[in-house]
## 1
Amino acid sequence: MKTVFITGASSGIGEACARKFASEGHRLILNARRAERLEELKAQIIRDTALTEKDILLLPFDVREREVARQAIANLPAEWQAIDILVNNAGLALGLEKEHEGDFADWDTMIDTNISALLSITRFVVPGMVARGKGHIINIGSVAGDAAYANGAVYCATKAAVKVLSDGLRIDLVDTPIRVTTIKPGLVETNFSVTRFHGDQARADKVYQGIEPLTGGDIADCVYFAASAPEHVQVAEILVLANNQASGSVIYRK
Ligand code: NDP
């Protein structure tokens, strides 16, 4: 039984990762801002799997609040301190606008969440892994980080940063047994597009029209594949696209 810390576990890919690791018998530390969603998920996992109350710890906080994150992780109960797997998943896209016309607040939120917060959580968790001589960091990047697409430059840049930060961490940990993986999903139907379009459900639905998108469960399977590989195998990256998708911008819709 490993201890798995998942950020952004209240929805979508993070929630699916929580269910997957739970179904495989691993104990969970679950983070997101919406504590009530985490409570619901915890109750469902206890109902659906062999995990019990003592196997799931909820750690609701905003990952952008560096000091709050520092305290939450430093003050983990002793039996939860040894995190084996960190899934840095919390993240978002906001807006779809030309770079020279974009919204400053949207940019700040994306950069603070997708880059700065991922770095903070990494900084607070990985030293413990180094001290224990074991661990695995799985960062959720995106096909968006491979190349810019129209009206998405800032989001794409944050996901390019996730790839480069993962690569850098893998280099810095090369003399340890600790593994670093980047998962780069394509089109996944979650709450992602509703968030991107500031709650416009009809506009979000159009993103997934005419194509069968990936599900959060598909991505959780990739995360679990990397996490459950033999110790001598370091899955560096997985790029996973919907069948009728060839890149961040080339999508065939029926
Ligand atoms: P969702 O909107 O369904 O989930 C996003 C999760 O992130 C929620 O649990 C949300 O929880 C959490 N989150 C957002 N901001 C914060 C914050 N400041 N502090 C703590 N938690 C936060 O989207 P996805 O599941 O699709 O997104 C998960 C990751 O996957 C993101 O990094 C995204 O960039 C990436 N991705 C998604 C793709 C897609 O097509 N869906 C494709 C490629 C990558 P809460 O609101 O409760 O805080």
Note: Residues 16 and 218 are 9 Å apart (CA to CA).
## 2
Amino acid sequence: MLRIAPSILSADFGRLLEEIRQVEAAGADLVHLDIMDGRFVPNLTFGPPVVRWLRGRVSLPLDAHLMVASPDPLIPDLADAGVARVAVHVETCHHLHRTLASIRDAGMSPGVALNPATPLEAALEASPWIDYILVMSVNPGFGGQTFIPESLDKIRRLVRLAPRDGLEIAVDGGVTALTAPGLVEAGATTLIAGSAIFGASDRAAAVAALRDATTGVDR
Ligand code: DX5
Ligand code: ZN
């Protein structure tokens, strides 16, 4: 079953809770949290205090995507703040196995994220220790960028090479009702979308449009 994860990066932060409640009611599966430090990516967002505030107010699982130069120090705080799962970028981890183990040990589900130009190998090597791979289909840091079309072939190769079934493949960046069918056909099992959902005047209709665009599409 395809999962849809709205990214609050493009939400109206003045009405954040209302925004999240709308996508919850529309049948979204996860709330995607883009945590950026202004070092790994040229943008800054929010960290554990904001996530902690969301916990208890939001019923969907909180899905953290760490775009930070040093992910390790954040892991205990994110677990404490109620995050369900955490993807770290392989480009940021000197000791990826240790970082993934610390996410699991803290009671969260670990994933690895790959920049568009990062080869698949690191993620494949880490597959015994993760629950999902997050394929970036734009360069991380900003919402509303243009989808990089080569991401489709990367997802196809990932499906072919993945050493086990059931490894979730999430795609993040430029996901819209136009790009979604091809992504699902290639093998993506989770669609992360920011501007396509929170940039639309009707957020619920935007979630439904993503779902409808991919209904009946098979890998
Ligand atoms: C970008 C973030 C994305 C972002 C996607 O670095 O990781 O989650 O919100 O935005 P859209 O869907 O607008 O490309
Ligand atoms: Zn993201």
Note: The two ends are 12 Å apart (CA to CA).
